Amino acid sequence: MFFTLIRLQFLKSFRSTSFAKSLLANILLGFLMVLLLSYVVGIGVLLKFILEKVAPDQDHIALVNSFIIYFFLGEFLYRYFIQKLPVVELESLLHLPIGKSRIIQMLLTRSFVSALNIIAILLVTPFAVQVISETYGGFGALSWVATIALASWALHWFMLWFKQRFEDSLIGLVGVFIVLVAGAGSSYMGWFNLGELVQPVFAYALVSPIPVVGALVAMGIAYFLCYRFYVSHAYLEDLSTEEDVRFVNQSIGFFARFGLAGEFANVEWKLIVRHKKSRTFLMLTAFFLLYGLIFYNNPAYTTEDGFSFIFIFVGVFITGIFMIQYGQLFLSWNSSNFDFYLNQRGGIEALVKGKYLLFLSISLICFLASVPYAYFGWHFLLIHLATFLFNVGILVHVIIYLALWKPKPMDLNKGAMFNYEGVGAAQFLIMIPMMLGPYLIYVPFSLLFNDYAGLLALGVTGVLGIFGFKRLSTININRILANRYEISSSFRQEL
Fold it and tell me: Transmembrane stretches, by residue range (predicted)?
């Protein structure tokens, strides 16, 4: 029965009407996956030489053992955003006269066949062969690699449970933040070194199989936790209606003051919190608020006579990341109900202005959340203010204008990672004005006068765009109205 279910899923993939359409995308994704895995192998092979260069007088094995925990922190994060859940397949199988336990076992086993589950092995095996085997022999190297691999696989099963249990609530996002801050943040601030706390476990794996057994037990517990949760919640009503009910009343009363545009902004907000793809963009917006920590406190980007040009891009990114990500698929989010807005009096105009209102609100929240960067210097607050004004005054109109070039339909129920529905050439062209637009204003004034004059010019340009909002927004509204039948026809095509 197990192999019969595997065969049915295989035939379903090939008989799908979207198989031919997604074949090219799957080939491209496969090539990218192989390329990324080759980079992982390359890092593993070069790890020995990197350590000899940056830490020639230290014990490289002990150093690697102390940093393994940070690999698992990173793995926790990328698994949270990339690892897929087998819920869609579960919905299509529950009506069959097959025990739920067998269906769950098949889906969980199939989910294990993933490139994510070989990253740890590809990364640490070259170092184990080159370094560890010379000191601790083949057994020590094998035991060490097995401990890391089993721990990674335990995280696979744990993440399947964690995402299904907490992804649709604030707890999931808070949990990921806690992992990030408590791990890397504590070491950065000097509170405690998390790596040194777990280093003895991996060091003991070099001379004893006990850590391997412990990791195997942890993997078994994670699998049992995941299996029991899926069996207990494998009901169609739980999978299909719970999410819709959970977010049904998540409105923002402030938007109601703006008439029909505000009502559509509320609808857009409900769309965001109800669907995983749009919620992922919202969560990534919160994560990218930390983007400045990479640059603002880095000596490589500080200058004696001012600040680095790269800070302008960082400011644009921090205050406008949601607008950039969500706005590049401007109408694709509404592809399933575009005809509704088309048939309303003033519906298209209200839809566009409602989206503008939503972009402005979230960008303002991002700007306010970035105020603590003033701790590194008041000029960072000025950078964020200038880039925020430029984003909401100018860049948002440019992004929407490019996004309206042959918009494509998309399925909102699919995940965000490695999902290219709704993506076309316009989405790649959007990167050009995002990266070059602010510098076209900032650089001339910065070179002729100083950095603060460049910021002033950038902010004033944004203010002028805000005052000219009606005229600039009308350009995009008229563009939609002029192509409304072509857009509506393309959205009716089957995904």
Answer: 23-50, 62-82, 103-129, 141-162, 169-189, 201-226, 280-297, 309-333, 354-375, 381-405, 417-440, 452-469
